[in-house]
Amino acid sequence: MVGSVGSFTLDKVRGLGDFALFTGRSLGAVFATRRLWARVARALYEQGFRCLPVILIVGTFTGLVLGLQGYYVLNRFGSEALLGVLVSLSLVREMAPVLAALMLVGQAGSALAAELGIQRNSEQIAALDTMGISSCGYLVTPRLLAALFVFPAQTALFVAVGLWGGSLSGSLLLGVDPGVYWSSVQRAVESEDVRECLLKAVTFGLLTISICAYQGFHAHRIRGATGARAVSSATTKAVVISSIAVLAADYVITSFLI
Amino acid sequence: MTPPLPSRSKPDSRTGNFLLEVNDLHKGFGLRPVLRGVSLSVPRGSLCTVLGPSGAGKSVLLKCLANIEKPDAGRISFEGRTLDFRDPVSRDSFLRRCSFLFQGNALFDSLTAFRNVALPLEQTTSLGRGEIRSRAMEALEQLELGDYAGHYPGMLSGGMQKRLALARAIVTRPEMVFFDEPTAGLDPLRRNAVFAMIAKYQALVGFTALIVTHDIVEALVASDTVALLHQGEICFDGTPDEFASSAHPVVQSFRDSPAALRSTLNGLRRAEVAPEQS
Predict the structure, then answer these.
(1) How far is B113 from chain A (nearest CA, A)?
(2) Are A211 and A245 in contact (CB under 8 A)?
(3) Domain boundaries of chain A, sorted by first residue
(4) Architecture of the domain spanning B16-97+176-188+203-278
């Protein structure tokens, strides 16, 4: 019993160390990878443009629900005028960075893990290594660099459409004055809130994309699964671990900044 | 259609001009040893084939040489200098002078044939775009794939994919090319064509080739030297003529396996006929 707990713990610690080395190696390869920016542009397209619809849809509905729920709660205290404060602070401080990251994990992160898993299976990653090309630098570094831009940008977009959704349900459907709504938004959000929001977005971006890349890259190491099953296991693990990491990191960052 | 073989002078392994030397290489997975002290010398400019039954450790040997697997013990020397794969400079310099042709080709399915071939030049050299373009097209045309430069690997036939993988392997003008089961899963005609293609371009480009396979007939015809890997050890190393006349029991059983199969089948047929007659 003690032996198996010890072996499990050692296994996890070794895995964490390996993950840290993988991320460090990928970031370090920025200076050694040739023609990097063309691949960064492609990653920007994959993570940014292709994930745009899901961010717009989820952001709008999140704002709509926040406006609706917020209105009925505030109405009890006769404070409907503070709807803009509730929607904007909820979005900027918590919901936009977390939900945008989860959506990006679901779309771009899972696709990345599956793509790398298939490349591992078909020996494309081994082929890069035998050519003297850094497989981390070629496959992972552009995705990590793109995440540094895409996650904050998508989060900002999520906030914008969320605020618009809040105004749609609060003002258009429930009768809060639009001027009151938007002026309370303007007064409520301060530069510290925006900084916290962007810090979370950048952290989640680096964390989730490196987790997804790590899982796909090492799909061959998954115990008891090979081939297509290993790829599906790697993709599932990537999404689950990334989602948990987003929520855990959110708690840690919030507790330091609050 | 099998391409004609160009004539070439046979390298002499007795001159001691070895490009690659492997000494006492060991590799195991868990408690199972796969390579148990493999020693092998590959003469410069030769086409050397490592034969062996499935599971003998041929692919593991090749992967250890290409730094895909880390050997547990032993020494690999290239041009007389011992390789240290932990030293990035030594490792990268070796890898840039070698190429590896995978059993499944390992082509990048999201890149066109041209981009597949240009990739090693783009990533490992400081050549300009024009030079990369001309060298990649030259390699594609050498392998008769010039008209397919814009095609993705999935749009090409199996044989064309094999040629594309060879074009990518030779575009960097390597001194040594490793071939992992290049004829696996092919019919006899295509096996001949692949061996002929390797021999043709080896003579044309001048690289040293190390092939692992279990196709005896093609290997004996096309190779300069042959080694037999059995249970993780090299039990024969010599010329194809020496292999054909060797009295070593493992060589004999491997070489004469079609005859042994024929004899077994004849025996079975006789046994089936005998009870009917009685």
Answers:
(1) 14
(2) yes
(3) 51-257
(4) 3-Layer(aba) Sandwich (3.40)
